[in-house]
């Protein structure tokens, strides 16, 4: 928009203008019918807004009101434009515009209209209708695992998923289950690496050779998103993580959990979306809060199998006797990090959630970059 342009947040229909004109003169539908030579029911429909203003109708109204046909044709055109703006304004009010701007995904704007147009550009769509047909449908069909059923916000989820699609490295390879299984075995060696700045690019390259895209993108502050797995518009599997909780056990469990969804259901048309409270240990949310509890349980199981070489050893332990040295030795024996072991011991109920959390590696966000703390 230019500085002197204006995008109203309301829409006045020609029928409203005509009703106002008649009312100001003490006239009604019957008078309009007499003046136009049409039926009273036609006049009522026109005043009710169920008849579009075409050239012939504009001429009739102009004759009845001593105005010009062009005025009524222009009023109809303006009404259609203003209706689009009202729809756009309502859509924009529900979008996480502040978060999108803070992350640098859209420019800061001086008007609601510029913000809304930038948001549409971010999604690569031209209108709210186009956004609804793709992103609205994508989210409404998602298989959701949430501790707050019914509270998922479509705009925040769609925005985050779009950001993942934009920032995940493109892949040239087609998806291969065998290569993905090999990639997941290979990146196990990164679990002990302390800095995401080092291990995230390595994981992206390794998964990319299996035809899988990966992005770790910061979610909106009010979001409970943990991760998701879906297919982008080109059909490539994509894993999105938020690093919610900012600890190594949660990040690594989420990675393998979402990868497990791809392995177990590679042709899934609907996204798998996980929303977990930051205080929840990885793998402990109720399956009753899932749209597909069987798939979630299977993904949890497969994730643990990848992360731990011998989970049976953990099942025989007593949490009250587990010291730091014992956990470190367990981690070494399982080729994983002490934080991952602590997380799984807490999940299994062997270790209280408040114990040994100091062994978990902590991460932090610096803008859009995840790093070690």
Describe the structure.
By secondary structure, the protein is an alpha/beta fold. It has 2 domains: 14-94, 434 Repressor (Amino-terminal Domain), CATH 1.10.260; 133-372, no CATH class. It has helices at residues 14-24, 29-36, 40-47, 55-65, 69-94, 97-102, 112-123, 128-140, 154-167, 177-187, 196-208, 248-264, 293-307, 311-315, 324-333, 338-347, and strands at 143-146, 213-216, 225-231, 237-241, 272-275, 363-366, 369-372. A hairpin with a 5-residue loop joins strand 3 (225-231) and strand 4. It is elongated, with a radius of gyration of 28 Å. Residues 278-288 have low confidence and may be disordered.
What labels would you give this structure?
alpha/beta; 434 Repressor (Amino-terminal Domain); five-stranded mixed beta sheet
Quick overview:
The chain is α/β, with parallel strands linked by helices and 373 residues long.
Q: Please, what is the average pLDDT?
A: 85
Q: What share of the residues does DSSP label as strand, in percent? A: 5-15%
Elements, N to C (H/E): HHHHHHHHEHHHEEEHEHHHHEE
Q: What kind of sheet is the major sheet?
A: 5 strands, mixed
Given helix and strand content, the structural type is alpha/beta
The value of Rg in angstroms is 28 Å
